[in-house]
Known about the structure:
This protein is an all-alpha fold. It has two domains: 2-42; 46-295, Orthogonal Bundle (MetI-like fold). Helix content is 75%, strand content 1%. The protein is built from twelve helices and two strands; from the N terminus they run ααββαααααααααα. A two-stranded antiparallel sheet has the order 1-2. Helix 1 (2-37) crosses helix 12 and helix 11 (242-249) packs antiparallel against helix 12 (258-295). It is globular, with a radius of gyration of 23 Å. 35% of the residues are buried.
Amino acid sequence: MANRQTTERTMRGLFFVIATASIGILFLIMLFLFREGLPIFKTVSVKDFIFGKYWYPTSDPPDFGIFSLIVASVAVTAVSGAMAVPLGVMTAIYLSEIAMPRVSQIVKPVVELLAALPSVVIGFFGMVLVAPFLQRVFDLPTGLNLFNASLMLAFMSIPTICSISEDAIHSVPGALREASVALGATQLQTIVRVVVPASLSGISTAVILGLSRAVGETMVVLMVAGGAAMLPGSLFDPVRPMPASIAAEMAEAPIGSEHYYALFATGIVLFFFTLLFNIVADTIAHRYAQVGEASL
Length: 296
């Protein structure tokens, strides 16, 4: 008994140290980000930096406006989410509720394997195969554009959304399905009115994790978004989201220069952007959890 209590205290202390270290590392990263990014606001105001339409950091005089980068990040995330969320959730429903067990046992490992694909491989696929296809089919000047980037990010997000949603749906107690069928409901009615509401919290978590990967993804948007720091007028215009701009220019920015500080300030904006996204997504997930509990 004493050995068991000692083991529990040791494990509890170990977990506490790991959690504290994680929080400390995150705080230090945030501190470094703010220390390196805030000096740019001695040169340009916060308003001009965020809402400025022109990003020419190496011109004379330089322009440090990241509004086009912010719009590109929001647009790419929104379009990819519009494709990934329905496909991922519907695939999860099919695998858990409709497909034969043998089909589900084969397809789910394949989906999980897709989630492990490196982003550079997906970006290479979009650049070499998808871009020429889009350029030929839609008669575009270039296939490296917002739609291509959104398509590749959706391809990256779908496996995560599908896998976690399938686990959430599969964890719904079988008694709920049996009670619904006993009351005369069809399989479709049981899925829509019982299974999905009961698993909304898990599905919402899957959506959060899937889109979080799309929000901060760097390599894919760097390779297939086109790299043009301008406001998009359509889905087929080249864009440059914030992560791509930071990755593309950081190696060329002299340490301590205005360009260097501006890139770190862009990272600060991206940090707040992802923080706001996670807060909103967590609020929605909590609300869906309450709705699912109330519907039962």
